[in-house]
Design a protein that fits this description.
Number of strands: 10
Number of helices: 6
Structural class: alpha+beta
Strand order of the largest sheet: 1-10-9-6-7
Largest sheet: 5 strands, antiparallel
Helix content: 25-40%
């Protein structure tokens, strides 16, 4: 069973919060959305994104035949699979994208403009032995297991692409995002299936945390997390982000598999 706690904090520099978080233990859905589009719009996008996901994934049934094994490479992308759970997650993200894009269109926004959200989360299989990890943009999912913190997502950002290509020349801005839910008529979520083991700690978060706090600091906080200490760990991560500058909203979902 996966137990979780979530928090969304406006940080120090912002006067409003555009991050949204969801923990639905019954449905096995855990996610963070980081809104974009300015006051009154980014929060609409992030909230709507998660509401659509929750609605679309409420009664998803997994396949009992030909289960998909865990991807051996944590960086691998699951492009095609017969697993209904994976396709349901993909459709749910696409549905959220369509609803936000329709709102943008109604407001007269051209393609690529208007409100949107980055997204990261995981949807548990019914037996809690595996999880569908999904993301769009630079919100992230991490897993702590056996003394090691692993990032299960790769940022869809110009900075990340620059690093992958060798990091030559001047570094681009870290917050220039290549994918988001809502500004364009289609979206391409990155999806993988990962095994879930007893003792795992999972973290979904916005860049308001990872932009202020190193992976090593995150690992230091969640290393000894237990079910009863999930709120304290989440609050400690928020405080670390604030101490690091708190320049952005901070969205966190932290979960422990028991």
């Amino acid at each position: 069973m996966m137990h979780a706690y979530c928090v969304a904090d406006k940080g120090i520099m912002r006067d409003h919060n555009e991050d949204a978080v969801i923990v639905d233990e019954a449905a096995g859905l855990f996610a963070v959305a980081d809104g974009m589009g300015g006051h009154g719009m980014g929060d609409v996008a992030s909230s709507l994104c998660l509401k659509v996901l929750e609605r679309e994934l409420a009664d998803v049934m997994e396949s009992e035949e030909n289960p998909v094994a865990e991807l051996a490479d944590d960086d691998a992308t699951l492009c095609e699979t017969p697993e209904p759970m994976v396709e349901a997650v993909r459709r749910a993200v696409e549905c959220a994208n369509a609803e936000i894009f329709t709102l943008n269109k109604a407001r007269g926004m051209s393609r690529g403009r208007g409100m949107g959200a980055t997204l990261a989360g995981f949807k548990m299989f019914d037996d809690h032995s595996r999880s569908v990890v999904f993301h769009v943009g630079d919100s992230r999912v991490y897993r702590y297991r056996g003394g090691c913190l692993v990032r299960l997502t790769r940022d869809h950002s110009v900075f990340e692409e620059w690093k992958r290509e060798g990091g030559h020349g001047k570094a681009p801005f870290k917050n220039y995002i290549l994918r988001a839910v809502g500004p364009n008529p289609s979206v391409n979520p990155e999806i993988s299936i990962q095994a879930v083991l007893p003792g795992d700690v999972w973290l979904a978060c916005s860049d308001g945390l990872t932009g202020m706090v190193s992976d090593e600091e995150i690992e230091g906080v969640i290393r000894n997390v237990r079910r009863e200490s999930l709120p304290e760990a989440a609050d400690a991560l928020v405080e670390l982000a604030k101490r690091g500058g708190g320049r952005d909203n901070i969205g966190i979902v932290i979960a422990a598999s028991l």
